[in-house]
Design goal:
It is built from twelve helices and 14 strands. Helix 1 packs across helix 11 and helix 5 (about 100-115) runs antiparallel to helix 12 (about 315-330). The strands form two sheets. Strands 8-9-10-7-11-12-13-14 form an eight-stranded mixed beta sheet. It has a six-stranded parallel beta sheet with strand order 3-2-1-4-5-6, with helices on both faces. It has about 325 residues and is an alpha/beta fold.
């Protein structure tokens, strides 16, 4: 199997698990360039991972030998860079969220389809083994009819996190806890049980933080089958704990806590998948394994080779971003 020539654009902290994944997948990818406009970041990246680096992003996009690009910049730059990559005939894997607003996210999804290239989105919680097992159990009817479901993201970020330029602003991140931290759990939750409508919501900046966007949000929702559901997310819960999804059904209950799963059925069945790894829920934001990122990247490479959509398409990511927008709108959040 020939290796796929690939580049990274954006070398902030979020690029780390991608770089580790590319090292693991060295037999499948040929990293031609890792690009950032910040020279210090390129030097540090080269020292750590050994990839060829550059500050010439335009040159990377124009390079005809590069077949695929990972767009790992802050959200405000996704549309411009990804569109240019797509027009240049490259496949694109975009970090979450798609873009700052639903309108810009829709533009990006349309660009991907019109270009006829493969475009995936990094929503890696779907790829955890426990998440995949839970999806299979639901599809097989192990829980029966879903009667209720709820999700909780009780994370922590210190004020120093939001003191960094652009953090927690609309201009850079497009939103607060829902767009930047809880989007992974929210996306997984929505993909498992569906969300038909937001019934009521609230969003606030708590006394814990000084920031432009929300650090606490909650919503009462109607699930895909009409059952009740609840969404709660915050970055003001010191010291931070693993995110969780609970699903109750007529035949049993599933509890997904971080990367661990417990399935309990009324007939006495019990199944456990235990994952002891951290999930980045506290002040150390990169304190999590890169296994799920590696799975996202492997699926993206498979999609290119098999000429199919990645597991998380632009449309799927867009549905989760629309849900976030609906929650904030229901909460009367200023934008």
């Amino acid at each position: 199997m020939s290796r796929i020539p690939l580049a990274l654009i954006g070398l902030g902290p979020g690029a780390e698990p991608h770089a580790k994944s590319l090292v693991d997948l060295a037999g499948r990818v040929d990293v031609k360039a890792a690009a950032s406009r910040t020279e210090g970041r390129t030097r540090a990246f080269a020292d750590r991972f050994g990839f060829p680096v550059t500050t010439d992003i335009d040159g990377v996009i124009a390079d005809p030998t590069i077949q695929a690009v990972l767009v790992l910049t802050p959200p405000a730059a996704h549309l411009d860079i990804a569109e240019r990559c797509l027009r240049a005939g490259k496949h694109v894997l975009v970090e979450k969220p798609l873009e700052l607003t639903v309108d810009r996210a829709e533009q990006l999804v349309r660009a991907g389809r019109q270009a006829g290239r493969r475009m995936g989105v990094v929503l890696q919680h779907r790829f955890r083994p426990a998440s995949l097992r839970l999806r299979a159990a639901i599809d097989a009817g192990a829980l029966g009819t879903i009667t209720a479901a709820w999700m909780l993201v009780p994370w922590w970020r210190p004020q120093a996190y939001y003191d960094e330029p652009g953090r927690g602003t609309m201009a850079r991140d497009g939103g607060g806890v829902l767009m930047t931290q809880a989007i992974h759990t929210l996306d997984l939750f929505r993909s498992l049980v569906g969300v038909e409508a937001v019934v009521a919501a609230q969003a606030v900046t708590t006394a814990t933080h000084r920031m432009e966007t929300e650090d606490f949000a909650s919503a009462l929702v109607r699930l895909g089958n009409g059952a009740p559901g609840t969404i709660i997310a915050t970055t003001a819960a010191y010291p931070g704990g693993p995110e969780r999804i609970e699903i109750a059904g007529t035949r049993g209950t599933a509890s997904l806590v971080g990367g661990s799963l417990r399935l309990s059925t009324i007939d006495g069945g019990e199944e456990n998948i235990v994952a002891e790894a951290s999930t980045g829920s506290g002040a150390s934001i990169m304190d999590f394994p890169h296994d799920a990122h590696r799975a996202v990247l492997a699926d993206f490479l498979d999609a290119i080779e098999q000429d199919r959509d990645p597991l998380v398409t632009g449309e799927e990511a867009l549905a989760s971003q629309r849900l976030i927008a609906d929650i904030l709108a229901a909460a009367g959040w200023r934008s």
